[in-house]
Amino acid sequence: MLEQLPVVIEPLRLAEAGRQLHGRLPLAEFKRLKPAPAPALHEVRGEVEVDLEFGKDELHIAYLRGRLRTRLQLICQRCLQPMALPVDEKFALGLVTTDEAAEQLPADYEPLMVSGPMELAEIIEDELILAVPFVPMHPVGQCPAQGGQEGRLKDKAPHPFAVLARLKKPQ
Ligand SMILES: [Zn+2]
Hints:
Number of strands: 8
Strand content: 25-35%
Number of helices: 5
Number of domains: 1
Bound molecules: zinc ion
Largest sheet: 6 strands, mixed
């Protein structure tokens, strides 16, 4: 069941109550997820489907677990053509109020510093930005540039690490 996502949430209260939230947000709503200055992002359109679960685990750690599903419009950095990247990202955030608590979180949580009400879109946007690859490229075999002259030349060039390995070998 999809419901309207709240604009502002109080994460700790939702964790106490064990609430779940489902809904969609338009990608255009994210102010930091813009085509410029990020050159890899082609355009911002579509929606992100959001599933969130707030609760407390057996160690009494308040958490926010979530799943984001969307398609990002990116620019392939090999052929410089637009490409759609399906995103299905899961995350687990430990809700903390102090740096000490953040440091003590088990490794399966990323800390989320909580101080009262927060904009839900901000939290979602942070996770979405992490899902954008640093150098987006078409999958192998689907990139128009791969059959091109440049692609072939690149394939023949020795891998930088291979060069390094040769340099390191004793004479
Ligand atoms: Zn490409």
